[in-house]
UniProtKB/TrEMBL annotation:
The keyword Manganese does not apply. Belongs to the ABC transporter superfamily. SUPFAM superfamilies: P-loop containing nucleoside triphosphate hydrolases (SSF52540). It comes from Sulfitobacter brevis. The lineage of its organism: Bacteria, Pseudomonadati, Pseudomonadota, Alphaproteobacteria, Rhodobacterales. Gene3D superfamilies: P-loop containing nucleotide triphosphate hydrolases (3.40.50.300). This is Amino acid ABC transporter ATP-binding protein, PAAT family.
Amino acid sequence: MTTGSGISIRNLSKSFGDTAVLTDISLEIAPGERVVVIGPSGTGKSTLLRCLNFLDRPDAGTLQLGDLSVDAKTASRAEILALRRRTSFVFQNYALFANKTARQNITQALIAVKGLSKADANRRADDILRETGLTARAEAYPAALSGGQQQRVGIGRAMALDADLMLFDEPTSALDPEWVGEVLDLMRRVAEKRQTMLIVTHEMQFAREIADRIVFMSEGRIIEQGPPAQLLENPQDPRTKAFLRRVS
Ligand code: ADP
Ligand code: MG
């Protein structure tokens, strides 16, 4: 069983001013597939994720998510909203509402994005709080939570949306080392549901464990990709080899 849809990314390009940040990215992700993106910083990994829900608008290319097809050049407001409803995003810096409790950060998304009633949103939030181990912290504000707890709220909020595709942008990079393990454990549990996931991370051991495929990017292009064992142990491109030497 899988959770979510596949996505086809075709010929995606994005520039900021004169700087090409993504060049002709094509990537197929199957339903339930867990894909990890690695690569040097400044290479366009965040921009790629942000283009997939039009937080950054791509200049060209098409996205197909389930039966929804969106062309960057002609995308309507309605198509962009539909795309956003079908994706969820976990940010490096959690991006929680500081003036809302853990529970309210989850229910707000359910009410605003999924149109749930307050009662239904609270019921769903109870399940999510339990699943993320946050029941005892439900009424706490982000400032009173540890970094690990804050990011578990961020992941819980994304889980609650039942998105076709979950996007994670370096979800453990802002954490003190002591909190990294619990956040990776929660992501493992999400991955076990065969939820379609696209994850940018520098946690190589985690990537090796949970990824069906690892994609290496450099300077706005996909350089090579393959199953973890192949990409990590037998990289073909000199840029991949150099990067892996630096991070391992
Ligand atoms: P990565 O996530 O791989 O570190 P990013 O996608 O954040 O890379 O950035 C890729 C490049 O795009 C960098 O050179 C960055 O400075 C540039 N960039 C990202 N966002 C913007 C923006 N909103 N405006 C201008 N340049 C940007
Ligand atoms: Mg980034």
